[in-house]
TrEMBL record:
Protein family (similarity comment): Belongs to the LysR transcriptional regulatory family.
Protein name as it appears in the record: LysR family transcriptional regulator
Keyword Cell inner membrane: no
Chain ranges passing through the membrane: none
PANTHER family documented for this protein: HTH-TYPE TRANSCRIPTIONAL ACTIVATOR TTDR-RELATED, HTH-TYPE TRANSCRIPTIONAL REGULATOR
HTH lysR-type domain segment(s): 1-59
Keyword RNA-binding recorded: no
Length: 295
C-alpha cells in the first residue's frame, strides 16, 4: 500500500475497532492489513496499537498518528471535492493565445458578451503571429490556423475552416486593370504575407482546375491587418483570410480579384496541452467562439 492507503487503513481499523471489520470494508484480507500496520510501526519505530485476543486500543503514539493522519486524509478529500466541484464551473484564469488578426477581428468583438456571462472568470489574451510554446507560456488554449496540425503532444480540435481569396481596392483596379486570368497577377504589384506558406507561391484552384503562380511580392508584411489596410489604400493585390476581408468587402473598400479562384482553405484549430479533456472555462470559451463563427 502507498502512504495514503496505509493511513486510510489505519484510520478504518481504529474507527471500526477491528482488523476483520476494517478489512471487509476495504475489500482486503485481515492478514494484509496486519502486515501493513506492522510495516508502518517498524518504519516509525513505535507501536501504534495494543492488541489482545479480545480488545484493541491506541498507544499514545497511535493516538497522535490517528489524529494527524485523519487531518491529512480530510484535507485530501476536501481538495479533491473542491476540484471536482469546480471542474464544471466557469471560473479561474483562462489564458488564450491567437494570431493578431484573428484575435482582433474574431475574438475581441465576442469578449464583452462572454465575460458578462461568466463574471467569475479572469482572462488573459495573448496575440502573437508566430507559433508559441503553449506549455512554456502557460496557455489553456491556442487558436491556430494551419492546413493540418503536425503530430505532437498537443491536442488539436477543428473549430472551423478559413477561406483565402484574392483582393484589391476598386481604385487600384481602375488604375492598373483587373486580372482576367491567374497568370495576369504576375504583372501586378503583389503584397505578400511574410508568415504565410504562400508568400511567393500561390496554389490556386478554380473552374479550370489548379494552377500555381510563382510571385515576387513587392511589399511583404507580417500582419494580415496591415496587409488589409495596404490593399484598401490601393497599394496592390494580395490574399486575405475571410475573417479579415469580410467587413471591407461588404463596405466596398475591397473587391474580389478573379472571384472564381481561391487558395487552399486551411483549418482553424483549438489547441490544448492536456489529453484529459478541456475544463469548463475552455469549453465555454470555445462554444462561444464556435457560435460567433457560425455562418
Amino acid at each position: 500500500m502507498d502512504k495514503l492507503s496505509v493511513m486510510q487503513a489505519f484510520r478504518r481499523i481504529v474507527e471500526r475497532g477491528s482488523f476483520a471489520r476494517a478489512a471487509e470494508d476495504l475489500g482486503v484480507s485481515p492478514a494484509l492489513l496486519s502486515r501493513e500496520i506492522k510495516l508502518l510501526e517498524e518504519s516509525l519505530g513505535s507501536s501504534l496499537l495494543t492488541r489482545t485476543t479480545r480488545s484493541m486500543s491506541l498507544t499514545d503514539a497511535g493516538r497522535v498518528y490517528y489524529d494527524e493522519a485523519s487531518g491529512i486524509l480530510d484535507a485530501v478529500t476536501s481538495v479533491e471535492t473542491r476540484i471536482r466541484d469546480g471542474a464544471g464551473a466557469v471560473r479561474g484564469h483562462l489564458k488564450v493565445n491567437a494570431s493578431s488578426s484573428f484575435g482582433q477581428t474574431v475574438i475581441s468583438p465576442i469578449l464583452p458578451e462572454f465575460l458578462e456571462a461568466h463574471p467569475d472568470l479572469r482572462l488573459s489574451l495573448s496575440l502573437d503571429d508566430r507559433v508559441v510554446d503553449m506549455v512554456e507560456g502557460g496557455f489553456d488554449v491556442s487558436i491556430r490556423i494551419r492546413p493540418a496540425m503536425p503530430d505532437s503532444a498537443l491536442v488539436a480540435r477543428k473549430i472551423g475552416t478559413m477561406r483565402q481569396r484574392i483582393f484589391a481596392s476598386p481604385a487600384y483596379l481602375a488604375q492598373a486593370g483587373s486580372p482576367e486570368r491567374p497568370e495576369d497577377i504576375a504583372g501586378h504589384r503583389v503584397i505578400g504575407f511574410l508568415l504565410a506558406d504562400h508568400l511567393t507561391k500561390w496554389a490556386l484552384h478554380g473552374p479550370s482546375g489548379a494552377t500555381t503562380l510563382d510571385l515576387d511580392p513587392a511589399i511583404r508584411v507580417g500582419n494580415s491587418l496591415v496587409l488589409r489596410d495596404l490593399l484598401i489604400a490601393g497599394q496592390g493585390i494580395g490574399t486575405l483570410p475571410d475573417f479579415v476581408s469580410n467587413d471591407p468587402e461588404a463596405r466596398g473598400d475591397l473587391v474580389r480579384v478573379l472571384p472564381e479562384w481561391e487558395l487552399p482553405a486551411p483549418e482553424i484549430f483549438a489547441v490544448t496541452a492536456s489529453r484529459l479533456g478541456m475544463d469548463a472555462k475552455v469549453t465555454a470559451f470555445l462554444d462561444h467562439l464556435r457560435a460567433a463563427m457560425a455562418p
